[in-house]
Amino acid sequence: MRKTTFLLPIAVILVAGVLSSLFIVDEREKALVLQFGRVVTVKEEPGLAFKIPLIQEVVTYDDRILSREVGPLEVTPLDDRRLIVDAFARYRIADVTQFRQAVGTGGIELAERRLDNILRSETREVLGSVRSDSVLSVDRVSLMNRIRDAAIVEARGLGLEVVDVRLKRTDLPQANLEATFARMRAEREREAADEIARGEEAAQRVRAQADRTVVELVSDANRQSEIVRGEADARRNGIFAEAFGADPEFFEFYRSLNAYRIALQGGNSSMVMSPDSEFFNYLKSDMGR
C-alpha cells in the first residue's frame, strides 16, 4: 500500500511529462519549436510531434493564403491628378524561421503592419511613374503586376510570399472629380460639334451635287425640248410654205381668220378701227377683195 502510494505520483508526473512533450501540428499550420527563444525545429508536416517539456515551447503560424486590406491611399501620378486608391494583397508565410526572426513575438499583427508599409510604398512608386489615364484604364492590370513583383522582393525579408496585389478602387477626389467630369463633358461636346460640322459639310456636298445634277438634267431637257420645238417649228413652217405655194389666197384667208380670232377675244380692252380697213377685207366680200 505504501509502495502504491509512492509510485502513483511518479506515474502521474511521468504521464503529465509525456503528454506535455507531445503536440499536434494541424494541416493548416506550421509549427516552430523554440528553446529559450531560439528556433530548434520547424514542423511543417501535419501530425504528432515531440518537444522537451518545460524547456521547449511551440509556436504555430497559419499556413494558408491570407488577405490584407490596404486602406485608402492618396497617390499623385505624373500628370498631378491626385487619385484615391484602395488595394488588397494575398500572401502566405513562406519561411516561418525567417518570419519569427523578423517579427519576433509580434506575430501576424506586426508582419501585416510592415506589409502595409511595403504595399503603400510600392503603390505610390508605381502609380506615381505613370499618368492617371493609365491607372484608370485597362493598363491597371500591368500596374498591379508591377506592384506585386516589387512587393514580393521586399516581403522576402519578412519570410512572406506575396501571391497577388489588386487595386479595388481608383477614384479621383471629389474636387478633382467635378473638374474632370466638366472637362470630359467639354471634350464630348467638342467631339459632337466636330461630328455635326462634318455632317453638315457632307450634307452640303450632297446638296450641291444634287443641285448640280438638277441643273444639268434641266439644261439637257431644255436643250432637247428646244431641239424638238425647233424641228416642229421647221416642219410647221414647211407645211405652211407648202400650203402657201399650193394656194396663196387660201393661206392668206387662213391667216386672216387667225388674226380675227386673236384680236376679237373678249376682255377689258377695246379696239377702234375704220370699217373700210383692210383688216376686214374677208368680212366685206366673199372674195376677200
From TrEMBL:
<feature type="domain" description="Band 7">
    <location>
        <begin position="20"/>
        <end position="184"/>
    </location>
</feature>
<keyword id="KW-1133">Transmembrane helix</keyword>
<comment type="function">
    <text>HflC and HflK could regulate a protease.</text>
</comment>
<keyword id="KW-0812">Transmembrane</keyword>
<dbReference type="Pfam" id="PF01145">
    <property type="entry name" value="Band_7"/>
</dbReference>
<keyword id="KW-0472">Membrane</keyword>
<comment type="similarity">
    <text>Belongs to the band 7/mec-2 family. HflC subfamily.</text>
</comment>
<dbReference type="GO" id="GO:0016020">
    <property type="term" value="C:membrane"/>
</dbReference>
<keyword id="KW-0645">Protease</keyword>
<dbReference type="InterPro" id="IPR001107">
    <property type="entry name" value="Band_7"/>
</dbReference>
<dbReference type="GO" id="GO:0006508">
    <property type="term" value="P:proteolysis"/>
</dbReference>
<keyword id="KW-0378">Hydrolase</keyword>
<dbReference type="GO" id="GO:0008233">
    <property type="term" value="F:peptidase activity"/>
</dbReference>
<dbReference type="InterPro" id="IPR010200">
    <property type="entry name" value="HflC"/>
</dbReference>
<dbReference type="InterPro" id="IPR036013">
    <property type="entry name" value="Band_7/SPFH_dom_sf"/>
</dbReference>
<protein>
    <recommendedName>
        <fullName>Protein HflC</fullName>
    </recommendedName>
</protein>
